[in-house]
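[job 4471] stage=fold_predict status=RUNNING
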Amino acid sequence: MPKGHENLKPPRSKDEARERGQKGGIASGEARRRKKTIRETLEMMLAGQMPDGATRRDAIVTALLEKALSGDVRAFEAIRDSVGEKPVNTVSGPAGEPLVPPSINVIFKDC
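[job 4471] inference complete, writing C-alpha cells
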C-alpha cells in the first residue's frame, strides 16, 4: 500500500462512497476558485497604473531588462525565452545528422 494510505478506511456502502466523492468534488472546486482568484488578482495588480503612467508589468519588464544589461545571465535567459528564442536542445552525430538508437540484432540459437 502506498505511503500515507494506512489511515484510509474503505467506504462501507455505495452511498458512503458517493458522499465522500461529493465532498471531494466540492473541496476541489473551492481550491480551483481560490487559485483562479489569486491569478486574477495578480493580473489585476500587474495591470495597475504606476505614478508615472506605466503599468506595474512595464516596471517589472524594465527592471528585468536592467538586470540583463548589467550582466545577470538568468535575467537575459528569461527575456530570451519570453520573446520565443529559447534554444532547442538537439543531439547530433559527428557529421551533423541526428542520432538514432542503434538497431538491436537478436540472434536466436537452438536450445
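[job 4471] summary: DSSP finds three helices and no strands in the chain.
[job 4471] exit 0
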